[in-house]
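Why does residue order matter? Because the sequence determines the fold. Keep that principle in mind as you read this record.
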Amino acid sequence: MTVKLAKMGIEKIKPHMVVGEKQDVPPAWALLNSNESAYGPSPHARAAAIAAVSSFERYLENPDKTLAPAIARYFGLDPNKITIGYGSDDLLARLARAYLGPNTELVRSANGYLKVPNYAYANDADVVSVADIDFRPSVDGMIDALTEKTRIVYLANPENPAGTYLNGDEVRRLHAALPESVLLVIDAAYEEYVDAADYEPAHVLVEEASNVVMCRTFSKIFGLAGARVGWIYGPDDVIDSVRRIGVTFPAASTSVAAAVAALEDREHTKMVFTETKKNRNWLSKQLSDLGLSVVPSQGNFLLVHFPETDKSATAVDQALQQQGIAVRRFNAPAFKNSIRITIGHLKEMQAAVQCISKFLQEEL
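Structure:
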């Protein structure tokens, strides 16, 4: 091709998940790989999406007008500081487009959400990856990494794929060290699963500061991954900039209808939280009892480390695939001997534990 890229950073973009290693395996029946909710959406959300199909031929002119007030009521927020996107990844990409460019930097924890560097590279910005502490972001390290080129500090809280988190005091200490010219982006995609007493909801700091924005999603606890609905909460100028560079119609009518209905069914969300927490604790104990190292998680998933022997993460992944169980592996070196397991239904996790146990005992 003779047309040259205008942004050479695009050539730095690489897949962040392990792909292309699937062997001749049966179709997966236990999908424990993408952190979707095993319990699906509220029945009311399904019904609302189906009803919205009756006007499928029409664009949804202003999803913010429909969905932002519903989000605001649910979480007790200001609807004017909310905008909607095609999943939270769309909004993270827009933030990068708005605030990053050549000779600027994004600072992030080295083993945080592995997709984020690609958004910086797509805008010819540099990425400063700060070493973590047992997969927890290092506040001191991130502060030390700040330079005159820093424009965004990205923090997933809880983190993905490890499930670790920073408490409110630590997040505030990080923010206090930032110049006003640096935007703190808190990716709180898994906040609804948190049960740690010292975790501070991200919106609290957003409302106190002029340079903090929070990203959220309907893909996790609300069970609407396929609907692709995300939202952010932030200062007026940030929200205005993100809106300006969005696509003309940034959300499907069926998706927004489902999201509004999902917010109204608090009992379903409460059930998903309770069952996920129970099954997360069960799976963590089962895997620990097998002698594996499990990272304590505040998300709907667990990161599990395997020995650097023939009992490797690659080998156990292949064994699980042969049993129709899908888990996730990542390309980053720190995750070479790890798999991430989404919390699913008990029968799915029992099958995964049984397979891993037989694998470790050389019965597979």
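The mean pLDDT is 95.
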